[in-house]
Amino acid sequence: MSSQDKPALIGAGPLAGLGAFTIWGIFGLYFKMVSFAVPLEILSHRIIWSAVLTFAMIFALGRRKQLWVLISSAKTIGLLFLSSLLVAGNWVIYIWAVNTGNALEASLGYYIMPLIMLILARIFFAEKLNRVQILSVGICALGVLNLLVSYGHLPWIALSLSSLFGFYGVIRKFVPADPIAGLFVECALITPIALGYMVWLGAQGEMAFGHTGMTNDLLFIGLGVCTTIPLVLFAYAARNMKFSVLGLMQYLNPTLQFIVAVLVFGETFTSAHMVTYGLVWFGLGIFTWDNLRTVRKNRRNS
Q1: Sign of the Cα pseudo-torsion (225, 227, 228, 229, in order)
Q2: Whole-Å CA distances, 73 to 76, 80, 250
């Protein structure tokens, strides 16, 4: 690339990152639009149409070599099947949460996800936590404990969403796959399960697809687009901007989820939520400050 071409690309990475996190942050609005269907049917459409779209993109973007690398290894297929189950679990819980008035707790799950991944990094990759990181995890744990005391049960939606995606990240770290080819293989592996469920649902006379109008059918098909596009944008952003900035930008996702849950869906933000979110935000603030301090220190030493 010539120096004359570079100015045209300034800001493209951050814009892609903003696009990805914004789409993920407001995705709940889309799930509300298809809430006339049961969560498992919505999940099935998300899997099937994502497989169709990513398959087309592989050929359109010349990613067949990357796909062959993935499917030529039985071990890789096994790991991607496991990761597909984990991400499908994350998807269906989020769909259910949004459509049952629990989008607020779902946003909490995405706030605490970076800290869950810190813990998993310590367990699976022997990455040491410094004192500030341990303090951050402890403060967020107090926030979770507050909801347990206030409501008498753990915020299982938040913990499930963050844990499932955290373990998904662990598996994908062992399989450094091309994002489009990787998503296609994951969706393709569980597409037979999704199709089987759709056939069963149709036999029961409870399937929404094909029975509620063309507009709704197009909304189902659009789930594949809304799943794939932010992933492509995120992959582009990860390659074309500072990772530390991308890490900070990820909080846009749960913040938008939070705003949508309270201001659009009208979910109640109680005093218990205020204490929990306050502790989580405080813990994340300390965690973010420590990350920025480490980045600046590494720059001075390099």
Answers
A1: positive
A2: 5, 11, 32
Amino acid at residue number 243: F
DSSP string, 138-200: HHHHHHHHHHHHHHSS--HHHHHHHHHHHHHHHHHHHS---HHHHHHHHHHHHHHHHHHHHHH
Q: What is the pTM of this model?
A: 0.86
- Cα Rg, the chain, nearest whole Å: 20
Q: Which of 87, 243, 89, 76 is nearest to 176 (CA)?
A: 76
pLDDT digits (tens, 9 = 90+) for 144-159: 888 888 878 788 999 9
Residue recorded with tokens 């938040």: 158
89 token code pair: 């679990």
Q: What is the pLDDT of residues 233-247, one digit of tens each?
A: 887 887 777 665 676
> Cα dihedral sign for 269, 273, 275, 277?
negative
Q: How far apart are alpha carbons 116 and 124 in whole angstroms?
A: 12
Please, are residues 15 and 235 in contact by the beta-carbon 8 Å criterion? no
**AA identity, residue 152:** G
Best CA proximity match to 93, nearest among 110, 115, 114, 80: 110
Give the CA distances from residue 238 to residues 25, 164, 268, 284, 291, in Å, rounded to whole numbers and listed in that order.
18, 22, 35, 21, 17
- Amino acid 5 reads D
Contact 22, 89 (CB under 8 A): no
